[in-house]
Amino acid sequence: MLKNNLIVENYTLKHHNTFGLDAQCGLFAQISSVEGARAVIKRYNPLKLPIHILGSGSNILFSKDFYGALIIKNYIRKIEIIRRDAETVWVLVGGGVLWHDLVLWTLNRGLSGLENLSLIPGTVGAAPIQNIGAYGVELADLLLNVEALHLETLDIHHFTKNDCAFGYRESVFKSKLKGQYLITKVMLQLSRNREVNIEYGDIRNTLANMNIDSNHITPTDVSNAVCNIRKAKLPDPAMIGNAGSFFKNPVILNQKWESLQNDFPEMPHYAVGTLEAKIPAAWLIEQCGWKGKRVGNTGCHARQPLVIVNYGGATGLEIMTHAENVQRSVRDKFGIELMQEVNVW
Ligand code: EPU
Fold first, then answer.
1. CATH of the domain at 103
2. In this structure, which residue's CA is closest to atom 22 in ligand 1?
3. Is 58 a catalytic residue?
4. 73: Cβ below 6 Å to ligand 1?
5. How far is the CA of 291 from the centre of ligand 1 (A)?
6. Which of 22, 99, 152, 315 is most deeply packed, by most CB within 10 A?
7. Pair (173, 88) in one structural domain
8. Is 192 marked active-site?
9. How many domains does the chain have?
10. Domain presence at residue 38
11. pTM of the full structure
12. Separation between Cα atoms, residue 128 and residue 246, nearest integer Å
């Protein structure tokens, strides 16, 4: 483990990305405070090399080495309750806190809101970039504001939820302001006794299988159910390299869905507003024969084909090529374009 605010040269990022890719970087620093980040950038980046911010590297594909770059790993790890009233608790969380550690921290204090987002890999600072979501809840439902350090001016800026321009796995930090900020803190608004949300997917069945009394379901029960579902479906990056869903679920116009229905009547879909439909990318990929198919050191996972895995020794380029082949076959068969969910560096 490196000391905070220290910098190393010519360092491998292998242990800093869940694909386990052996990319090299010229300069690597770990920071645990805003002051630490400012000091590192001022001292070590006078030439204004590109700066990349890493959380736990769980949604990133390294397609190259980064010799002419400064990589900063965010270790800002404080969690504080800022305010509370009878119903609501406002929690301010450092960007370097691991997301699931935060979920457990809130559940241990009787706070609800994050239980459906249990076991999502990654850090709190990465959560707003991606607008992480699972089982019918997304970060945008709970976030109040974001504090971030501008990497050029080194000023702190505050973003309201509105400023973040959240969408499905989207935010202003992934589009207009991409690469410009280090997210230092996130303010969340949690509840003392919010009703649990168990409508999505297998949560209700899983709770029943766990013999939980349906009249007394606690947020911790929901969290345990979500953990069980995720563990059963999604490969553990500690065992087999991956970055969760590689693609987003595509959203298409109803008109297009209706025409596809003629050829593929069993195609699942979920309404998005009144004009569009979301199609599960996993289904499209499975129909193209990729489910569980291995190609060299990579492939689509056997239980959840939306997850592309590194069986060991894959390069970023090999994974990208596989992803492009999957995209091409979905395009050829369905005329639907799969968009990456993972960030490619
Ligand atoms: N499906 C198949 N074949 C499969 C698996 C799934 O056809 O092998 C179809 C089924 O129709 C199923 C549907 O896909 O009903 C949806 O599957 P699932 O509930 O597993 O969710 P997903 O849409 O594939 C999304 C998120 C996940 C999140 C889950 C649960 C995206 C891109 N992915 O996956 O998030 O955990 O919902 O809410 O939105 C991530 O972002 O990295 C991630 C894992």
1. 3.30.465.10
2. 280
3. no
4. no
5. 13
6. 99
7. yes
8. no
9. 3
10. yes
11. 0.92
12. 18
280 lines ligand 1 (CB under 6 A): yes
- 147 labelled catalytic: no
For a mutational test of ligand 1's pocket, the pick from 199, 234, 245, 279, i.e. the residue with the most ligand atoms closer than 8 A to its C-beta, is 245
Q: pLDDT > 90: what percent of the chain?
A: 90
112, 129: one domain: yes
Residue 288 has, within 13 A of its CA and on its CB side, a CA count of 22
56 and 156 inside one domain = no
Same domain, yes or no: 64 and 98 = no
* Exposed/middle/buried for residue 172 (C-beta within 10 Å: 0-12, 13-18, 19+): buried
- 212 and 108 in a common domain: yes
Q: Whose CA is nearest to atom 40 of ligand 1?
A: 245
- pLDDT tens per residue, range 146-173: 999 999 999 999 999 999 999 999 999 9
Domain assignment of residue 215, given as a range: 79-233
Task: Please name the amino acid found at residue 167.
Answer: G
Mutate to test the pocket of ligand 1, among 287, 306, 342 (most ligand atoms within 8 A of CB): 306
89 shares a domain with 38: no
Residue 1 has pLDDT above 60, yes or no: no
The owner of tokens 């299988």 is 209
